[in-house]
Amino acid sequence: MASRATEIKIPVSFEEALRRHEREIMRFLLRTTRDREDALDLFQETWLRAYRAYPRLDPDASLRPWLFRIASNLCRNRIRDLARRGRVFADGDYPDHERPRDADGGTGGFDLRRAIAALPARQGQAFAMRKFVGLEYREIAEALGCSEDSVRANVYQAVKKLKPLR
Amino acid sequence: MTTMDFEKELREFPTGGSGDETMLDLALAEGRRRLSRALKRVARPRARVGEIDTPVGPLFVAESERGIVAVRFIDGADFDRELHALRERFDLAENRAAANKVGDEIRRHLAGDNSALTHRIDLSLVPSEFQQRTLRALTRIPPGAVTTYRALAEAVGAPDAQRAVGNTMASNPVPIYVPCHRVIRSDGSIGNYGGGVERKLALLRAEGFRIGDALKLSEGVVLGHRETRIFCRPGCSAARRAKPGKTLMVADSSLARGMGMRPCGICRPA
Questions:
Q1: DSSP 3-state helix, strand, coil percentages of chain B (rounded to 5)?
Q2: Beta strands in chain A (DSSP E)
Q3: Which of A1-10, A29-38, A75-84 has the lowest mean pLDDT?
Q4: Which numeric CATH code is attached to B129-263?
């Protein structure tokens, strides 16, 4: 009667998940949006979505890629919305009043920043996750819903495009 | 530019050096403040959960701020589904110390301490008012006594709802604390149990019942009236007149006396 037929896995609490990953999510959002207010909005939305979906997350699933998938999807949506409203900075040609602010509120131009903004969305996100947050290729692949090889190729292409600009 | 230089520049992007970390800290503090405000509007209640070992097998327990909300036999077929349902309703956080307190009570109870189970109960996982009423009525059946599906249905004012009472027992989220093992069949056989008949036997035996291989209550059982506080032999004419909803089957006369009952003057139980 006292034998153990099933090993249970109690999922990590949401509070603990937040504590473990809030910093790197914020870092990713700041680097990806390049705008403090946008990053703060997306930070809140990422965690609210995660909170709502948390009961349905398989306790065996990797938490980190799942959170980054939410954050990167929200970033992609935000970029799409901004593009619809004409706030596309990818061409590097900013009218003064629309120049994207630095994460600290400044508007200083920085070639690397513009160059990253000009990358295709998937490349930019894979690049940011790898270089700015330090995610493993496996985790990025899970977050972006693609293969590890594809992530490696995206990061490689991004570096190849950015490096000559320096 | 060398690859190393490029990697260094990336690390320091966008503001360079430690300023970037300060900026991140400030943004994080503001982000936390906004998020905590937003989460308050959608937050689920919290529950402490943990796994405990008991003589009736490993159990999973969940305790909300209002009381024990779930006790599950881990080897149950539906455990995953039940854990999922619990996560939909509560924010779970593992807390072994809290679970161990519940485990201590259950172990003492199974060792024969009939006053060991002191935790409050939270029936918020029970969906219907009828089921909640039935389970609350069940908590008034003391250790050492049992009732029947029929008597319990009468006790909650629904004498025709024996099957619904049976279903309520089957879906009881807090077994042991809400003692669905104290409900047996009218013929004296112990009937089924969500955690298995073997566990029901262990619980009833720990509470003082002598149950043989036929899985029926033994001859020593007496019938106690919950209002007159009189107990009788099962064949007593006075006991036959009593409504099933008002009577309990008590393991033996000494336990009935321990519950504050006195023997019937007609059948004079030992």
A1: 45, 20, 40
A2: none
A3: A1-10
A4: 1.10.10.10
**Numbered ranges of CATH 1.10.10.10 in chain B:** 129-263
| CA–CA–CA angle A143, A71, B41 (5° rounding) | 130
Q: Which of B205, B97, B72, B196 lies closest to B143 in space, CA to CA?
A: B205
Q: How many CB atoms lie within 10 A of CB B234?
A: 15
Q: What is the pLDDT of residues B233-246, one digit of tens each?
A: 988 988 888 888 88
Give how far A41 is from chain B: nearest CA, Å: 8
B50 with A14: Cβ contact below 8 A: no
Q: Which residue has the tokens 């779970």?
A: B92
Could you please state the CATH topology (level 3) that the domain comprising A14-165 is classified under.
Butyryl-CoA Dehydrogenase, subunit A; domain 3 (1.20.140)
- Does B75 contact A47 at a Cβ distance shorter than 8 Å? no
Q: What architecture does CATH give domain B46-110?
A: 2-Layer Sandwich (3.30)
Q: How far is B7 from chain A (nearest CA, A)?
A: 8
Write the residue in A2, A10, A113 that is nearest to B57 by C-beta: A2
Residues of chain B with CATH 3.30.160: 46-110
